[in-house]
Structure formats: structure tokens, C-alpha cells
Amino acid sequence: MKFTEFKKYAHELWTGYLNTIYKQQKAGILITDAANSEVPNSQASSSSDKVILYPNMLLVTDMGSHFVAELIGAVDSFNGLIEKEHKERSITRYFGQFGNVASNPGFKINRPDFVMHHLCLARPSDLSELSNRYPQLSLTVLGQSIIYFSEEGSSLIEFSDESNCCMIWNCVIVNKYENLFRCKNVLAALIVKKSAGKPKMLDIFEKATNMVVDNERLVAGVSVVKRDEASLIVAGQFQNMYMSPGIRETTIGEFLHQHPDIIKKVFKTDAFLYEASFDWIEYRNTPKGSQIRPDLMIKRADGHYDIYDLKTALLTKSRVTKGKSNRRRFIDGVMEGVGQLANYREYFSLPQNLAFANSRYGITVSNPKCVLIVGNYDNSLVEEISEASRMFDGIEIIDYDTFCKLFVAS
Q: Which of 207, 210, 285, 319 is deepest in the core (most CB within 10 A)?
């Protein structure tokens, strides 16, 4: 099967299925309990404090030997799926989040068709402590059974040559490498071997989406939680996005665009622009390109807008800085973002550009705060970032885990 065929067919399958589930919910034909199973409408009162959250993105990934179509997102209605392409070196790194080789895997998939759901897989760890960083781990309403693998190793899951098609849904995989932990929250992922055809792909999809336990059909591809815990699902999906190896910053940006409450709650704003284009009208030196396109322009309390730029969590970097304390500086990936912010700030320092921004988007910019979102807890030490920032007046650095934690706290 070609990747283009896989993308199209996976999109059709998921969209058709989720449309049906959403229509049934709106018609009052079914509700969904905490275990993601259909419940007769007469029992609706027992689940009245719960909400059903739907995905709004489909991340389709080409890994050479396998293709994956993973549902991402958590919103209260289904309005289709925005498709994003991704490339990954191997299926092991995709689910293991660290290396390409599965040493001492805890779970080996060696069947031609396999469905795994409602499980939490982990190496020896304190999940309650890890939930401070990965808040979705604190949820018990998802009905997941926890399986600990006592021996040390890398990726928890290994896909053998015999595994043609499989579905993983409503699962959490807690990966460990040395003293580092990463958590992958899998809402639903359809995995198909490149050599498999559409009939086998359809077979595993129908098997996974028509499962029955205790005379109740399970509903895949949605999250069902208490209303006051919905933000934990959103946070988990966000972490699943930015903690994916090799993910593009534009894909992270699209997730934030599709989940505007994250931006609004973290930065206490009621309005922002995403990837708005601003023409160079006035400039001091000849600019590169005819426009600038900041990732985010966020309205602050006084009505003016600040400038934000998104990079990735830099998962392959041990630090976002380099050098000793008295010569501390940022690594190249961070410096690129700092340079972009400086360029954006210069644009908004010129009167004719300000007039253009106001006429095109109705915004005003005055002494803007410039913020770069980059890195994660493991590679972003506050003291080192402070030392490296000494030469960059007015530019702030926030790592993604801190950003996510601010959302949960809000």
C-alpha cells in the first residue's frame, strides 16, 4: 500500500466512524460511560457529570515499514479531522519516544491482527509522582489497567515481522530511558504494515470499533471524563503532540490553534492571531522576504498584542544552552527562535508597519513582550536559561512542560 492510499483510507474510516458516534450522541441514542462503552439512554443520569471529547486532528506518519494514523485532540464536538503528515525513523521510536531499537521490550506484538485498549504500560516508576509532569496519569476514570514490567529496557512495545495491522486505543505508555521518563497518551492509533492491503486494514478497524465487553459495545476514538477533569485530557493530548520525536513546530502550532482555550487560559487573553501575515511596509535594512508571520500574536490586558514564537521540545538535546556559566549561550535551535523574535520586534517598531497591522487585523502593538516556547523540563534549567538570556533584553523563554502545567493550573 502506498502512503497516499493509506492516508486517504484512514481519514475516510475515522471520519465516517466518528461522525456516526457524534450523531448518535446528539440524537440521544447513546451516552458513554467512564469505560468508553455505550449505555442505554435510560441510564443517562448516572453519567450526567461527564463529557465526551472528540479528536480534531489526524496525524498520519510514514515510518518506511509501517504507517500510523493517530487521532489527536479533545474538543466537545466533532467537526472533522485536520490531517497532518509526519515522518519517523521507526515504529519503535514512534511509540517508545527515545531510540530506534527495542531492547528488552515489555510487550511484543507478533500477531497479524491485534487490538490493545484500556491499558497503562510502564517500567518501574512512581506514577503518582510522574503525574506532576504528566497530569493525565492522575485520571482513574479512563478504566485503564496498569501493567508494570519489572526489568529495565528501552521501548515497551516491539512490533514483529508478523504484525500486519493493529489498533491501540485509550492506552498510556510510560517510556523510560536511564533517568528520563516520557509519556505517550494514545487516544487511538491505527497501525498498518506497508505490505498490508486495504482489506486487512478494514478488518482491524472494524474489529477494534465493534468490540463488545459484558454485552456493551466499546466506543473507540473518544475520551470520556468528568467535566472538571476535561483539561487533563487536553493537556495529555498536547503533551502527546510535543513529546513526539521529530514533530514539526507547525504541527504543534496547529494543535494550539485547534485548542484555543490553552492559549486563552495560560496567557489570560480573550483574543489571539495564529500565523497572521504582515507585509513589510517600512524597514531599516532590506528584509528577507516580503512578510513576517509570527506563530502567535496574543492580546494582553491593556489591549496591545505581544509576540510569541513556537519551536519544538528539542527532545534529542540534553540542554537548550551550552558553555560554562560565564559564557552561557543558547544552542542553535533556540537562537533561531530568538533571532526571529528580534526580527518581529523590529517590524513592530516602525510606524508604517504598525499602521498596516492595525488596518489589516485591527490590532495595536506597543512595547511587545517577546516569548519563545521551546524545550522541555529535561533540557531547560531555569538558571542556565537566565544566564544565556542576559544578552537578549525583553525576550522570555518558556519550556513546553511549564506551558502545559500553567494550562492545567489555570
A: 319
Nearest CA-CA partner of 313 in 354, 374, 261? 374
Report the distance separating Cα 310 and Cα 299, nearest Å.
17
Per DSSP, the three-state class of 145 is strand
**Helix ranges, 163-301 (H):** 198-208, 230-242, 249-258, 260-266
Q: How many CA atoms lie within 13 A of 235 on its CB side?
A: 27
Quote the number of domains for the chain.
Answer: 2
Same domain, 289 and 393: yes
In this structure, are residues 383 and 321 in contact, taking their beta carbons and an 8 Å threshold?
Answer: no
Helix (H) or strand (E) holding 14: helix 3-26
75 secondary structure, DSSP code: B
- Domain residues for the domain of 219 are 3-255
Distance in angstroms (rounded) separating the CA atoms of residues 198 and 110: 20
Provide long-range contacts, Cβ within 8 A and 24+ apart, for 391-397: 392/338, 392/342, 394/345, 394/369, 394/370, 395/338, 395/341, 395/342, 395/370, 395/371, 396/369, 396/370, 396/371, 396/372, 397/320, 397/334, 397/371, 397/372
Cα–Cα distance between 153 and 215 in angstroms, integer?
Answer: 38
Which of 255, 279, 310 is a domain's end point? 255
Number of H helices, E strands in the chain: 11, 24
What CATH number should be reported for the domain holding residue 356? 3.40.1350
Cell of 87: 515522518
pLDDT tens digits, one per residue of 148-203: 666 665 677 877 777 789 999 999 888 888 888 889 999 999 999 999 889 999 99
**What gap in Å lies between CA 167 and CA 117, rounded to an integer?**
8
Q: Are 207 and 220 in contact (CB under 8 A)?
A: no
C-alpha cell read off for 219: 466506543
